[in-house]
Design goal:
It is elongated and about 55 Å long. Helix 1 packs across helix 2. By secondary structure, the protein is mainly α. It has three helices and no strands.
Length: 71
């Protein structure tokens, strides 16, 4: 499965237990509305394209079909 967050496109990848990096990323989004709006829009586009209902239903259908073959 593809990652949900793409660094600097729809969010930031922050190192584990790095409060300074987290603070800097949050401050950057807070201070720059253009970054905020761009990431917001890209997030919506990516989620819709990856998880559109028809795509999900087709994936579930294919999974069930694979179970039928095992019977």
């Amino acid at each position: 499965c593809n990652e949900i967050i793409v660094n600097d496109i729809n969010g930031f990848i922050i190192s584990v237990k790095n409060p300074t990096q987290l603070h800097d990323a949050m401050l950057r989004v807070y201070q720059d509305t253009q970054i905020y709006e761009s990431m917001r829009d890209k997030s919506r586009e990516m989620i819709v394209s990856r998880y559109e209902q028809l795509v999900v239903w087709e994936a579930i259908h294919e999974e069930y079909k694979s179970f039928e073959n095992d019977l």
